[in-house]
Specification:
Radius of gyration: 23 Å
Strand content: under 5%
Strand order of the largest sheet: 1-2
Shape: globular
Largest sheet: 2 strands, antiparallel
Order of helices and strands: HHHHHHHHHEEH
Number of helices: 10
Length: 225
């Protein structure tokens, strides 16, 4: 039921965005948050239950990666986009929501069908590989969203508080530190992904050469016989 609810929510968001784009063009991107923001907030809030699912053993995933992913989305959606109306009108918000929903629609569809024992090779392939190109794009979109929000946080002082002894918490500096963490994680991911691709290419070349050598040796043995 949880996977079904999430699938319906994200499918509605993606369908709404697609229909609005073909109907109104680029103008639909400006008020994307006003059209689907509430449903997006509900879906992301409900997704926090996944931490409970993993903790009690209902879902077989690692807790830390999912916690980091959900924390990342909560920070960007609730603390950055929702709190600043000027950021909600940016094109990057629409792009970010598209990337999020592409990943979630495929993931929840695959999980929902797997629970009831249905498996499709194409869907399994998409579930295991789509995140590779989309996730770095999500990180870039999130980073650009935070970057565009910095002037508004600095002007309005949202979430910035003064403390005793002339101390203060400046939220824009917190976001800048978070941006650095995002880029470090992105480059680390790209490095690991590039290493993995090189390993696969080298393994494929080695197997191809080995197969040709074995075939050549076999042909020579047949000729000798």
């Amino acid at each position: 039921m949880y996977y079904l609810i999430q699938f319906c929510g994200h499918s509605w968001i993606f369908t709404n965005m697609t229909v609005r784009f073909f109907s109104f063009g680029k103008d639909s991107m400006v008020d994307t948050f006003y059209a689907i923001g509430l449903v997006m907030q509900l879906c992301q809030s409900v997704s926090l239950l996944e931490l409970l699912h993993i903790y009690v053993g209902i879902e077989s995933n690692h807790l830390l990666p999912r916690f980091l992913q959900l924390t990342e989305r909560v920070i960007v959606l609730f603390m950055v986009i929702t709190s600043q109306e000027e950021v909600q009108e940016k094109y990057v918000v629409c792009v970010l929501f598209i990337f999020w929903n592409l990943l979630d629609m495929v993931r929840y569809t695959y999980s929902m069908l797997s629970v009831i024992g249905i498996s499709y090779a194409v869907l399994t392939w998409f579930s295991q590989t789509l995140w590779m190109p989309i996730y770095p794009l999500c990180v870039l979109a999130e980073a650009f969203t935070i970057y565009q929000s910095l002037p508004y946080f600095e002007s309005f002082g949202t979430y910035s508080t003064k403390m005793p002894f002339d101390l203060s918490i400046c939220f824009p500096y917190v976001l800048k530190i978070y941006l650095m963490m995002l880029f470090v994680g992105k480059w680390l991911f790209c490095f690991v992904f590039a290493f993995f691709l090189c390993f696969l290419v080298c393994a494929a070349i080695y197997l191809s050469i080995n197969r040709k050598v074995c075939k050549h040796v076999g042909d020579e043995r047949k000729n000798l016989e």
